[in-house]
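Researcher: I'm preparing a figure for a lab meeting and need a structural model of a single chain. I don't have an experimental structure, so a prediction will have to do for now. The sequence is pasted below. Please return the structure as tokens so I can convert it later.
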Amino acid sequence: MQERHRDRNIYFSEQEYTTKKYVIPFINNFLSINSDVNVLEIGCGEGGNLKPFLDLGCKCVGLDLSQKKIELGKQNFKNHPNNTNLKLFVEDIYKVNQNNFQFDLIIIRDVIEHIPYQEKFMEYVKKFLRHNGKIFFAFPPWHNPFGGHQQICYSKISLVPFIHLLPKKIYRFVLKCFEGENLIVETNNTVVKELMDIRETRISIERFRKILKQSNYKVYEEILYFINPNYEIKFKLRPRKLPNILAAVPFIRNFYTTAVYCIAGL
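Model: Understood. Here is the structure written out token by token.
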């Protein structure tokens, strides 16, 4: 699993595949995706999620805090026939003037679990929605076997499920024991810091729903996946929804849900 995070081309292709096959059909039930749609992705990385939208002629904007990822994204799209419809920026969403950016669709895929002060973020981001606009969320609940993102480690610890649920001090100690060469060169942060930051911003299904309600979002549909759609391209596993009997049990469902898909609006 670690190799997929090192090789950003593999990661780009995986995002493209899953978005094309599963994300866009899910969104299409509530918003027809065509060349008239303006799309914003927050935390776009190299733009793998945006490519299927760009292929359909959508006007796309991607924001990310990583200069390196944005530069790679621009390289990936330089020969795309619709590249004039794509703008990629290194920018903090809180520094963007929403009066200049209004979108039919906002994509927040595998990002919300990394964002601090999620209540503030969810309230702020809706300002970028046009009338009748939609937001697509996807995230792994914290309590699932790899909800701590330990798969980004470059050691055997990446294969250990539920290790992120250890008490904070013990978890940090175990991570440091396996730290080795786990250096994120671009930011000069260790993987230990990255994983401990994720621990602080972790999110559950219940808390996610609560934040949506507090910010007066309307939820059109939510799917809890037992097998994440992204696992099809990664591990050749067919996506499966969480059985209703488990999906109905608060807290416990977080341990069995590998991905939440949600489409919401105002």
